[in-house]
Amino acid sequence: MKAAAKEFFHVARFLAVDCKADLNITAATKAAGSFDVVRFLVEECRVDINVTGISGVTVLMTAAQHGRILTVRYLVKECKADVNAADKFGDTPLTKAAANGHFDVVRALASEYRADVSTVTNTGTTPLMLASRQGHADIVHYLKDNLR
């Protein structure tokens, strides 16, 4: 997996530098699993990480959904990504992390970056409900203790 991520970084660099390709938010969202690629796209290609695609998904949402804590921290601390941004379904980085069982990401978003733990999706679902439905007991207990 690391080899694939490293190879993707070289491909992204080649496209941006050698081919002068316009690597945009779609590329950044697809690369959210690779910290080096996201950092390259932000710092070298000047991709605006708060821009969304048609569905409203941000790079931060994708990183949170896949448990990429290093990328999440970078996007929030360095890039000032909106921790409460919602897509067209009302999902936020926190709902995506909670539903997918990424405790470290949930804790960082809720405690360090003050994401709204009471946020509700368009279907009336909270991060607590999503974690509970998926059987993520550690997240359920954490969110219960940190509801504000």
What does this structure look like?
- About 55% of the residues lie in helices and about 0% in strands.
- Helix 1 runs parallel beside helix 3 (about 35-45) and helix 8 runs antiparallel to helix 9 (about 135-145).
- The chain is an all-alpha fold and about 150 residues long.
Q: What key attributes describe this structure?
A:
globular; 9 helices; 148 residues; Serine Threonine Protein Phosphatase 5, Tetratricopeptide repeat; mainly alpha
Chain-wise SSE layout:
Elements (H helix, E strand, L loop, with lengths): L1 H17 L6 H6 L4 H9 L15 H7 L3 H9 L15 H7 L3 H10 L14 H7 L3 H10 L2
Helix pairs in contact: 1-3, 4-5, 4-6, 6-7, 6-8, 7-9, 8-9
CATH architecture descriptor: Alpha Horseshoe
The figure for the number of domains is 1
Mean pLDDT, as a whole number?
Answer: 82
Counting DSSP H or I runs of 4 or more residues, the number of helices is 9
As for the CATH topology, it is Serine Threonine Protein Phosphatase 5, Tetratricopeptide repeat
Based on CA atoms alone, the radius of gyration comes out at: 16 Å
Oligomeric state of the chains present here: single chain
The dominant shape is globular
Amount of beta strand? under 5%
Largest sheet: none
Keywords: ANK repeat, Repeat
Pfam family, one: Ank_2
InterPro entries: Ankyrin_rpt, Ankyrin_rpt-contain_sf
